[in-house]
Amino acid sequence: MKIEKPTIQKWILLLSGLFTLLELFVSFTIWFTPEVVIENIDLTANGVQYIVRMWAVRQFALGGIFVYAIIKKSASMLRVAYLFFLLMFLGDLVIGILQHEMGLIVSAIVMCIISIVCMYFLSKNKTEN
What we know:
The chain is mainly α. It contains five helices and no strands. Helix 4 (75-99) runs antiparallel to helix 5 (102-128).
C-alpha cells in the first residue's frame, strides 16, 4: 500500500520561492550592508552590531526553512514556515503601531493575510487527501 503525499498547489510553491529569495536577500543585505536597511541607527554604538547580526540570522533561518520545505515539497514544513512568517509579521505590526509607522503597519497586515491564506490552503490540501 502506497501512501500519497498531499500535493501542494503550484502558486503556493512559487510564492514560497519568492519569499525564500526575499528572506535570503534581506539576510545578506542586513549582514553585509546594514546601513542600507537601517538608516536611523548608529551602527557603531555598543551592542548594535550584535542585534543586527541576530536579525540577519533570523531572516536567513526563515529562508532556510522555506528552502527545505520547497525541496521536500512538504506541506507541513511550509505551514511551519508560514506560521513563523505570521508570528514575525504580527510582531512587526505591534512595532509599527507603537512607532506610529503606517508603512510597517500596512505591510505587516498584508503579510499576515498572505501567511494565513497560505496556511489555510496548505491545511485544506491535507484534509482533502
